[in-house]
Specification:
This protein has 258 residues and is of the alpha+beta class. The chain contains five helices and twelve strands. The strands form two sheets. Strands 1, 2, 3, 4, 5, 6, 10, 11 and 12 form a nine-stranded mixed β-sheet that branches.
Length: 258
């Protein structure tokens, strides 16, 4: 596993992140997760070269805590981030998000309820529990996109009769569908995956030792990993060890452009 320092000495890096300061908390740059309380809770390296009075109108205050989203450029020595440029963060466009739509083609006659008695919230829960016990289980999710645009309110989207249960397994797709039909009478899509949930969780447990590790999770057939900084070394290591694309490394700090 790579053991290089998270950020090369002297490299100028940039991040869009939360800056926070509290009664018992110095001004810090939150490189990891942010708890969505009021005020929010997060932490990170000490931030120098930042003055709140220079950014009025771009931060909030509550219970003695100040916080805001900022684009910060500077140098990080592993414990302190020294800013050379700070500005308000723009909304970042989200790309390459997991696709939770149903991969199966619509059956002849459309998606229909085959058995109303087993198309309930209770039977849906039982179906997901049964799916997790299937040989080669990979993942499962609910697709409510068929309700998109309908003016029927939130309750309609949550109606199990209008949802599609999606399950993926690495083997015996037909057998898995037969097993799930014992508990689910609504729309069902069972497809094949490359890796089981157990395999992905094993990888997830391994990558926590990566330099600068911040977060990790398995979703839709791959492992997402957040780190403080990656110049490509960590991603190349992950591709070589697990196969290209199975583990995606996302870096909070990136080399500053310009």
């Amino acid at each position: 596993m790579p053991s290089a320092a998270p950020v090369p000495r002297g490299l100028v890096v940039a991040a869009w992140a939360t800056v926070i300061e509290g009664p018992e908390q110095a001004t810090e740059l939150c490189l990891g997760g942010v708890a969505t309380s009021l005020p929010p809770q997060c932490g990170g390296p000490r931030l120098r070269g930042f003055a709140w009075e220079d950014h009025r109108g771009h931060f909030e205050e509550a219970s003695g805590v100040r916080w805001g989203e900022f684009a910060v450029t500077g140098r990080f020595d592993g414990t302190t981030f020294t800013a050379t440029k700070v500005g308000p963060a723009r909304q970042e466009s989200v790309t390459d998000e997991p696709d939770f739509t149903t991969p199966c083609p619509e059956p002849p006659g459309g998606w229909r309820v085959l058995d109303p008695a087993t198309t309930t919230d209770e039977s849906m829960s039982a179906t997901f529990e049964a799916a997790a016990k299937l040989p080669g289980y990979a993942d499962s999710w609910i697709d409510s996109s068929r309700d998109a645009g309908l003016d029927q309110g939130e309750e309609a989207v949550q109606d199990p009769r209008k949802a599609t249960v999606n399950v993926r397994v690495t083997r015996d797709v037909a057998g898995a569908e037969r097993a799930l039909r014992k508990t689910w009478g609504g729309a069902l899509c069972v497809t094949r995956a490359e890796h089981t949930d157990r395999e992905l969780r094993r990888i997830q447990d391994e990558v926590v030792d990566l330099p600068g590790f911040l977060s990790g999770g398995a979703s839709m057939g791959r492992v997402e990993v957040g780190v403080v900084f990656d110049d490509g070394t960590l991603q190349r290591w992950a591709d070589a060890r697990y196969g290209a694309g199975l583990v995606r490394i996302s870096s909070v700090l990136a080399p500053a452009s310009g």
